[in-house]
Every structure is written in C-alpha cells, then in structure tokens.
Specification:
The chain is of the alpha+beta class and about 425 residues long. The chain has an eight-stranded mixed β-sheet. It has a three-stranded mixed β-sheet with strand order 7-13-14, with no helix packed on it. Strands 2-3 form a two-stranded antiparallel ribbon.
Length: about 425
C-alpha cells in the first residue's frame, strides 16, 4: 500500500514522490489515475474538516470560559449555553465526517498499485519485456517432439479425461511414474532451497482469511481469481505467498531477525478468471497445481541484493535440471499490481518453440508490509516497515511439463534428469 504521507508530500521524498508516482501509474496503463486524484481530493477534504473542527473547538473553549464570569455577574447564560451546545454538535459532525473520509481514503489506497523501481523497463505489455540473459541451448531434435499431454497420455501417467469426469476441465490425475516425478520434484526443490540455499522449510495453511489476501495485495482487486468457501471468511490459497507473507502480520521484528527466509510447499488453487480459451489443453493453466515458493522478509537497504539472490536460487534449479531458460525483466505494462520490480524466468518448450513462464521473482519493497503491518526496529530503535520478496522456486507442474518435452525420446519415453535420479530411486527412464 502506498503511504498517504508520500502522496501528500509529507514523506522523505517530499513533493517529488507524487510526480514520480503519477508517472508510474501512467506507465502501468493509467487506469488508477482517477483513484489517485480521488485520494488527493478526499485527503484535502479531511484536512479542511479537521481544521474547521479544531477552530470550532478553540472558539468553544473561549466561549466556555465566559460562563463563570456571566454567572458571577448575575447575567443570563442560557443563550451562550445554547450556542455552545450547537457548537459541540457541529464539532461531533465534523469529527464523524473526518473519520468517514479517513476510512474511504484507506479503502481507495488499497486499490492503488505499487510504485515502480527506476530499473523497471517502460512498456505497454509482454512484448516490451526486457531480456536480461539466456541460459542453455535448446535441444535440436531429429524427430518431431510431442507436447506433454500427448506424452503423458501415451505413457499412462496423466489422465485428463477421468479428471474432467470427477471434477471438470483444467484438472488432471497424475499417476504411476507421473505422480512419482511430481513428488520427486517437490522434494528436490525443498531439499535444494533448504540445504543449499539456506531457506527455512515451511508447509503453510492452504486456507486463509480476507485479511491475508488484503495483506498481499490480491484483495480487493483480484477477488474473482480465488476460490471462496461458502458462508465463511475462508479462501483457498492461490499461492503460498499469501499465508507466508502474513506469517508476521501485525508483528515488529528485531533488526537481528532480518532477513527471514522461507521455502514453502503448497498446492495452489486459481479460478483462472479471464483466461477463457487460453491453454485449454494440458497442464499449463490448471485450477489446481503444486508450487514451491521462496519468501524473504528483508531490511529495506538489502532487498534488491536479495532480489538478485532469490532469482539466482530459482535459476539454479533450472540449471541443475539442464533446462534452457531466459530471464526477463517485466515492463511497466506487464508487471504485477504489487511488485516494484519483477523478473520472469521462462523455460524453453520444444514442441511449440516458445519460452513459457515458470517463475516470477518480485520485490514488493514495503507495499505488502504496510498492508499486513509487518515492521522491524532499526539500530536506532526506530520502527520501520520491512521489504518483502517472493518467487517460485519453482512451479512444479510447469517443471514437469518442461522435463517431459525437453527430455523425450523418439519412442515416447522420457529420460530423467541426472539431478532427479536420486529422488526416483536411480531410475533413468519413464517408459
């Protein structure tokens, strides 16, 4: 959430912040400019109401001091008492008006996107994302590679038809060696990030409340993207980012507690609102999938160093699995609502000759921490907001897709990457 003090020019950047932030919103597409202007106007109205209330109270106090003087002089205090009563009512009305405006401003602030980091590329959409690097050469096949759903069905390790019968579209059964490969990937990811990269393992709740979604920035803007549990304040998580970000909700950490780093495994549930007709076949865009999430609570001065490290930890998995990928810096028109800077890691899929996103690694600065009220005490004992960062380390289902498509053989069998074989009992092929 953007700090109202910054919008009003009372923050550390002064008046310079508002001009930059307006420009950031324009570079994001401009949709939130009306909301920002409404916030500015409401904040000004609140200031006026408070000033009027304070002036009226000052006058009220001045007049009240005359009552004992009038009484002592034997004069009638009735008219003055009536006037004071009317003024008291007016003060209460102005205070109520001020409180109502304050609540409305808070609600509007929840709908404003994050500011952009100076290094975030400017652009209108996906086509303007900036390629940072490419790693690994795509494999040259001497046969026409099949898509993952063809391979999965022919190997009898993925069943879409029965999942559609049991639940509906965008669901799948993984079975046999497909289920074992998924489980191996989860264990490999968690082992690598905890043992090698120093994250603390976590398995979070898969159900959260409204406040948790507000804390990460998905609510109120993206309520249609999640599954709610009827007649409750509970929602299925769309990513482990939601419960893990809120782990320290409302708390004040000590300076020596930072950074806090977690790797969290969870299933993820998404309604895929707005994706009608996109990726209808296969595992790319499912209502349910597994993911290992990397989460960091950082000191503000260190968050961009940790952003690079977090991204490299996700990249390390792709490199160990010998999957070709590229790192893209998302432009202003494609970056998420809450991120100030984001890298997408995109893995190569041979049948379609395309790179597809397998991890988004984002720095939110204090945007989520303000919403979830997560703070720390610095060396001088001053309370400040932490910076939050997260990224997929990796999306399990999309990694399974990449392995099936990149490691397929002409006879339809799948070679298992060397790094995964210890988790597959030494098995070298799925056939």
């Amino acid at each position: 959430m953007i700090d109202l003090k910054d919008i009003e020019g009372r923050g550390e950047l002064g008046a310079a912040f508002l001009d930059k932030y307006k420009n950031d919103i324009k570079n994001r597409g401009g949709a939130a400019l009306g909301t920002l202007n409404e916030v500015i106007q409401m904040a000004e109205d609140r200031k006026k109401a408070i000033a009027k209330s304070e002036a009226m109270r000052a006058e009220q106090n001045k007049l009240s001091a005359q009552i004992p003087i009038l009484k002592k002089a034997g004069q009638d205090t009735g008219p003055l008492m009536t006037q004071l009563s009317e003024m008291a009512t007016g003060v209460k009305q102005l205070q109520a008006q001020s409180s109502q405006i304050e609540e409305a401003v808070k609600s509007l602030l929840m709908s404003l996107p994050n500011q952009l980091h100076v290094s975030t590329p400017i652009g209108k959409g996906e086509g303007d994302n900036q390629k940072i690097k490419m790693v690994g050469a795509p494999r040259v096949f001497d046969f026409k590679p099949k898509e993952h759903w063809e391979l999965g069905e022919s190997l009898n390790i993925i069943d879409f038809e029965r999942a559609a019968k049991v639940t509906g579209t965008r669901f799948a059964f993984l079975k046999g060696q497909g289920a074992r490969l998924e489980r191996a990937l989860i264990q490999y990811f968690m082992d690598t990030h905890s043992n090698k990269n120093g994250y603390q393992e976590m398995i979070p709740p898969y159900i959260v409340n409204t406040q948790s979604y507000l804390g990460t920035g998905q609510f109120p803007k993206f309520t249609e993207d999640v599954f709610s549990l009827k007649d409750t304040d509970y929602y299925l998580i769309s990513t482990a980012e939601v419960p893990v970000t809120n782990y320290y909700q409302g708390e004040i950490l000590n300076l020596q507690d930072l950074p806090q780093r977690f790797c969290a495994y969870s299933p993820c549930f998404r309604s895929e609102a707005g994706s009608h007709g996109r990726d209808t076949k296969g595992l790319i865009r499912q209502h349910q999938f597994h993911k290992v999430e990397l989460m960091i609570f950082s000191h503000p001065e260190e968050s961009y160093d940790w952003h690079e490290k977090l991204t490299s930890h996700a990249e390390g998995i792709l490199e160990d699995l010998e999957l070709p990928y590229r790192r893209m810096a998302l432009c202003s028109g494609d970056i998420s609502f809450g991120a100030t800077k984001c890298y997408d890691l995109e893995v190569w899929l041979p049948p379609t000759q395309t790179y597809r996103e397998i991890s988004s690694c984002s720095n939110f600065e204090d945007f989520q921490a303000r919403r979830a009220n997560i703070r720390f005490k610095d060396g001088a004992g001053k309370t400040k907001f932490v910076h939050t960062l997260n990224g997929s380390g990796l999306a399990v289902g999309r990694t399974l897709i990449a392995i099936l498509e990149n490691y397929q053989n002409q006879d339809g069998s799948i070679r298992i990457p060397q790094a995964l074989r210890p988790y597959m009992g030494g098995q070298e092929l799925i056939k």
